[in-house]
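Reopening this ticket.

The earlier resolution said the output was attached, but the attachment link was broken on my side. Pasting everything inline this time so it's all in one place.
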Amino acid sequence: MIDPGTEADEPVIGLLLAGGLARRMGGGDKPLRMIAGKTILDHVIGRLAPQCSDLVINANGDPARFARWHLPVVPDSVEGFAGPLAGILAGLDWAAAHRPAIRHVVSVAADTPFIPRDLVARLAAGLRHGGCELACAASGGWSHPVIGLWPVAIREALRQALTVEQERKIDRFTGRYALATVTWPTDPIDPFFNANEPDDLSTAEALLARGLL
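Inline output:
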């Protein structure tokens, strides 16, 4: 049993998952696409940074393309495109090596520009109140397991699942643990809106222009 919960004011590391292949966007780095004069990554960082002690970017390839943010860039340690679980493992490994006193990492998709400003606080509360081991976000009747709070202590079990069991489905992995699912309202917008296709960029700009955020 992993030590359940995290204190409300306990520092966490924010992990920006930017390792997707962006096929529906035509390839490239989705977080570097522009919305209202700023990159999607800028929007995500602006919302997540005040909630975390450190931010780390998970991305493969040349890290220089993220240089202007002056953040650590950690690639997947599992060969091949193993999906978001590999990025989460990379973040947990970074935390263990560089911030050994920190017990939890919060992961977010780096193409979700409207991440809630109370994300960490509410996920941490979900862990505490439910006596759970993991927490993930949900909205509009859908869970978003990529957006979650992970104990650093789980990293060897995750490595085993990825490298030995060849597990790639995040839901199957989280299903092994007591999971708190924390739901956010979708009115006036879904805070977990993500930019998957070119049209989503104009939709996001329209939401910002309406002052709904």
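Reporter confirms the inline version is readable. The beta strands are 13-17, 34-35, 38-39, 54-58, 73-74, 104-109, 134-139, 142-151, 179-184. The first strand starts at residue 13 and ends at 17.
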